[in-house]
Automatic annotation (TrEMBL):
The gene is Exoc5. One of its GO terms (biological process) is exocytosis. Residues 41-79 form a coiled coil. The lineage of its organism: Eukaryota, Metazoa, Chordata, Craniata, Vertebrata. This is Exocyst complex component 5. Residues 30-138 form the Exocyst complex component Sec10 N-terminal domain. It comes from the Eukaryota. Keywords: Coiled coil, Exocytosis, Transport. Pfam families: Sec10_HB, Sec10_N. Residues 149-707 form the Exocyst complex component Sec10-like alpha-helical bundle domain. It comes from Pitta sordida.
């Protein structure tokens, strides 16, 4: 038996044999085990022979049965061929009979069709005679339950009567027409009653009969009218219309043979009656009195109408349902959309002007006229103001005249205008209309608000000799930068999608570029080096002027030539403390107000001029030994302040100035050694000499001799 393992089989045989289970033990008998193996081998040989004979016998039997089976298959194949022949003969016979039957059927039909027509004509003549006699006796006309058959007959008689001459058959034609009209009215009344009862099958039967009558369209009108009874009871006419159309769509296919035409007619009736009346009531109320509400209502109604149209696209309305629904929407809104953009621009202009005026009124500020012109005109005005003595500046009382609230309101109004423009504008007019809205935003946000604030800020920069200079212009720069980023975001998010694939894109980008250039000129954003220095110098002059004022007011001559050389208790002078405090505040303000390379550009200019101011200031005094030490301490503090600039050139200038101040205290014998040091070796000898001359002991023969 499977699975067979020879080792296990031998092992079991050994265990079953007495004396064969314990190798090496006392009970182990190898002879007996050998004898058992020999006997078992003989038994296996006998079994193998017996099985072999049985296999041979089975093989012979299998071969015999295979021959018998092959013979039987051959006999079946012959029988199948005979049967196939019989089937072919039967098929040919059936085809022959079918051909005869078809031919006979054609002959019968050829005989029967004229006969049926003759019978039908005879019946029509009978009914026609009744109309000639003026008395309708047939049951089909008198029995109200046979209205369907009567309708079929009268419809045929009506067609026949139209072919008859009027002079001879005028009376009978009028009778047939009257009966035709009566039956038509009865059918429509029956359809109406069935609709009210909700009997779909009866409605389908009557509609099928009326299909051949002239009043079939009236039947459809009745159905449409009754469908709308009680359908518009809520305030949301659009939702009611969608629900009604969905309900009718399920029903109309069970009643009419042309359901798509009936459903389209229902939708047309809803649009031209219900929706058009509702839209007119909502818009005409505010059209002339409230532009804001008018635009909101127009956008809302148009959006809801297009959404309803999208829902109706799911239904079968014929071949070109998109064009059909578009024409219906256009018929409702065409009178409002023709002049939409004019209303939009007019509202946006008045609304933006009101937002700005309300802001300036809250500040008790009367707007003044500002300079106009392009970039070149602006550059020329700034150049002239930079190079000429500054006149009296305008005091803004610290007001930047820039408001985040105003900007958010203007951008929000424009955003809504862009959304309305996208929805309400014709695709061909969309880029042009969007550009007009963008122009309004540029006019009121960039020109009337940001540009006005910059002009006012520039005019409010105090002169360099002002004793109390508050540099509010940097606050203007900071706020203007923030506002312009918001403006740029709206440009990318709301305007670009409307003009991206039109020629107006390049025009808008150019307009934006011009705005950026004009703003950056005034914001010191580095478009033009000459303009940048011109604008910066207006502010930096003021800063330097304020530092001069501090030094003049706080620095005393006795600071560097104290009366008691042995009783100096301060580490640096009061003037140095105040100047450093002022400079640190201005550096922080510049970093907060500007970004990018503009910060480094302005700080470098300020640092160089700060160094020149301190250098020239130190040249005004004479220094004793202790005064020279105090000057070194002051310059060390100035140098520490210069590190905040993070400009290598500025720090290098103050390092050199600090080294020059060492000449004020060094011993006369060491002057030449100090002057030849690393920081002073490359300086002009006149500069070194000018500092040595500031020492109170300069005129001593010993000092002059050593320096020479």
């Amino acid at each position: 038996q499977e699975p067979f393992v020879a080792d296990e089989y031998i092992e079991r045989l050994a265990w079953r044999t007495p004396g064969g289970g314990s190798r090496g033990g006392e009970a182990f008998d190898p002879k007996r085990l050998l004898e058992e193996f020999v006997n078992h081998i003989q038994e296996l040989q006998v079994m193998d022979e017996r099985i072999q004979r049985k296999v041979e016998k089975l093989e012979q039997q299998c071969q015999k049965e295979a021959k018998e089976f092959a013979k039987k298959v051959q006999e079946l194949q012959k029988s199948n061929q005979v049967a196939f022949q019989h089937f072919q003969e039967l098929d040919e016979h059936i085809s022959y009979v079918a051909t005869k039957v078809c031919h006979l059927g054609d002959q019968l039909e050829g005989v029967n069709t004229p006969r049926q027509r003759a019978v039908e004509a005879q019946k029509l003549m009978k009914y026609f005679n009744e109309f000639l006699d003026g008395e309708l006796k047939s049951d089909v006309f008198t029995n109200s339950e046979k209205i369907k058959e009567a309708a079929d007959i009268i419809q045929k008689l009506h067609l026949i009567a139209q072919e008859l001459p009027f002079d001879r058959f005028s009376e009978v034609k009028s009778k047939i027409a009257s009966k035709y009209h009566d039956l038509e009215c009865q059918l429509i009344q029956e359809f109406t009653s069935a609709q009210r009862r909700g009997e779909i099958s009866r409605m389908r039967e009557v509609a099928a009969v009326l299909l051949h009558f002239k009043g079939y369209s009236h039947c459809v009108d009745v159905y449409i009218k009754q469908c709308q009874e009680g359908a518009f009871l809520r305030n949301d006419v659009f939702e009611d219309a969608a629900i009604l159309c969905q309900r009718v769509n399920k029903q109309v296919g069970e009643i009419f043979s042309n359901p798509e035409t009936v459903l389209a007619k229902l939708i047309q009736n809803i649009f031209e009656v219900k929706l058009q009346g509702y839209v007119k009531d909502q818009l005409e109320e505010h059209r002339k009195s409230d532009a804001e509400q008018y635009l909101k209502n127009l956008y809302d109604l148009y959006t809801r109408t297009t959404n309803l149209s999208s829902k109706l696209m799911e239904f079968n309305l014929g071949t070109d349902k998109q064009t059909f629904l578009s024409k219906l929407i256009k018929s409702i809104f065409i009178s409002y959309l023709e002049n939409y953009i004019e209303v939009e621009i007019g509202y946006l202009k008045s609304r933006s002007a009101m937002i700005l005026q309300r802001y300036y009124d809250s500040k008790n500020h009367q707007k003044r006229s500002i300079g106009t012109g392009g970039i070149q005109d602006l550059k020329e005005r700034l150049r002239q103001r930079t190079n000429l003595p500054l006149g009296p500046s305008i005091d803004t009382h610290g007001e930047t005249f820039l408001s985040q609230e105003v900007v958010v309101n203007l951008l929000q109004e424009t955003k809504q205008a862009f959304e309305r423009c996208h929805r309400l504008s014709d695709p061909s007019d969309l880029p042009k209309n969007a550009f007009r809205i963008f122009s309004m935003l540029v006019e009121f946000l960039c020109t009337e608000h940001i540009d006005y604030a910059l002009e006012t800020g520039l005019a409010g920069i105090p002169s360099s000799d002002s004793k109390n200079a508050n540099l509010y212009f940097l606050d203007v720069v900071h706020q203007a930068n923030t506002i312009f980023h918001l403006f740029d975001k709206q440009f990318n998010d709301h305007l670009m999608p409307l003009i991206s694939s039109s020629p107006k894109l390049s025009e808008c980008l150019q307009k934006k570029k011009d705005i950026i250039e004009q703003m950056e000129v005034k914001l010191d954003m580095g478009i033009d080096r000459q303009v940048e220095i011109s604008i910066s110098i207006l502010t930096l002059n003021c800063m330097i002027g304020q530092m001069k004022h501090i030094l003049a007011a706080e620095q005393k001559k006795t600071d560097f030539k104290p009366e008691d050389e042995n009783n100096v208790l301060i580490q640096y002078t009061n003037a140095c403390v105040k100047v450093c405090g002022y400079v640190r505040k201005q550096v922080e303000k510049i970093r907060n107000s500007m970004d990018g390379k503009n910060v480094d550009t302005v700080l470098m200019e300020l640092g160089v001029r700060f160094h020149r101011l301190i250098y020239e200031h130190l040249q005004q005094y004479s220094y004793s030994c202790m005064g020279g030490m105090l000057a070194i301490c002051d310059v060390a503090e100035y140098r520490k302040c210069a590190k905040d600039f993070k400009i290598a050139l500025v720090l290098q200038l103050f390092d050199t100035l600090h080294a020059l101040c060492n000449l004020l205290v060094v011993a006369p014998d060491n002057l030449k050694q100090v002057c030849s040091g690393e920081q002073l070796a490359n300086l002009d000898k006149n500069i070194l000499h000018s500092f040595v001359q500031l020492r109170v002991d300069y005129r001593s023969a010993r000092l002059a001799r050593h320096f020479s």
